[in-house]
Design brief:
The protein is 67% helix and 11% strand. It is built from 9 helices and 3 strands; from the N terminus they run ααααααααββαβ. It has a 3-stranded mixed β-sheet with strand order 1-2-3. Strand 1 and strand 2 form a beta hairpin. The protein is elongated. It is found in: Membrane. GO terms for molecular function: monoatomic cation transmembrane transporter activity.
């Protein structure tokens, strides 16, 4: 279960430092885009704390109330994070940007803004670099997008998306700030704020989609299903696997149920032995499958 949280801690440290300086610089220079960036960093800070809380909750051992454990707590809190990015990050930034476009205010001294943006790019870039390295360890040769889609640990790609959006948002602010101050176009600051908001809404939509899929009960991949089917049907007492259902309880725990048709001429003891053999072979081949439930049938259709 996400044994290495280095990317989350690095993002948390960077965002705490950056949020304070962005708000101070935004207030000093009267820049709505810098305030939006401060909101962005503040939301990201809260997000990292929620992810760490979700990871901690997901490791609670199973009990009478949750016999399959608390692994899906991580998926729930990841979904909450995507909502926060949408509402607090994207929504407030867009709202504030529109206000500054309608009623633009005189631009203050941008010197501190440039200094804060430079420092923020360095810190966010460092955090993004750590997140990329950590995610690269688990993508197993897949393309980046396929690895994100197939990943069952949202804490890994959430930080990756957050840091990527943060760096891109800073670049947007930097470019629009230079143009706005050079040509004295006061409403460009508001446009930059709206663009940051739209960027966050786009990122939140992707993250919500992935988190929702896991929260709703995403199953194992079709190729894995075929391998499990082959393992079960190799057993001498099995005619065929009639049906297979699975769901990820956490990034490292899968619940699997097989409906297996056994040969008609075997007794209950043979079926019990076969079930144990199948369960062992599946768990040995796929360590992530923690729970294997096998429903026997002696004849198809019964």
């Amino acid at each position: 279960m996400a044994k290495n949280n280095k990317s989350i801690y690095s993002a948390l440290i960077a965002n705490v430092l950056i949020a304070v300086t962005k708000f101070a610089a935004g207030a000093y220079s009267n820049s709505s885009s810098m305030i939006s960036e401060g909101i962005h960093s503040l939301v990201d800070t809260v997000n990292q704390l929620l992810l760490l809380y979700g990871l901690k909750r997901s490791k609670k051992p199973a009990d009478a109330l949750r016999p399959f454990g608390y692994g899906k707590e991580l998926y729930f809190w990841s979904f909450i994070v995507s909502i926060l990015i949408f509402g607090l990050g994207g929504g407030i930034s867009i709202f504030q940007g529109i206000l500054h476009i309608i009623e633009p205010e005189a631009l203050g001294d941008p010197t501190w803004n440039y200094a804060v943006i430079g420092m923020s790019i360095l810190l966010e870039g460092w955090s993004l670099f750590v997140a990329i390295k950590e995610f690269d360890k688990v993508r197993n040769g897949l393309s980046w997008w396929n690895a994100i889609v197939k990943s069952k640990d949202p804490s890994s790609f959430l930080v990756l998306f957050e840091d990527g959006a943060a760096v891109l948002g800073l670049l947007i602010v930097f470019v629009f700030m230079i143009i706005g101050h050079h040509f004295q176009i006061v409403y460009l600051d508001g446009i930059a704020s709206v663009m940051i908001g739209l960027l966050l809404v786009f990122v939140s939509a992707i993250l919500a989609r992935e988190s929702r899929s896991l929260l709703m009960g995403e199953g194992i991949a079709p190729e894995t299903q075929e391998k499990i089917r082959a393992l079960a049907e190799q057993d001498q007492a099995v005619l065929k696997v009639l049906s297979m259902m699975s769901t990820y309880q956490s990034p490292t725990e899968v619940l699997l149920m097989l409906i297996v048709v056994f040969k008609a001429d075997i007794d209950t003891e043979d079926i019990t032995d076969s079930i144990e053999r199948i369960r062992k072979s599946v768990k040995d081949a796929f360590p992530l499958i923690r729970f294997v439930i096998i429903q026997p049938q002696t004849v198809e259709g019964n």
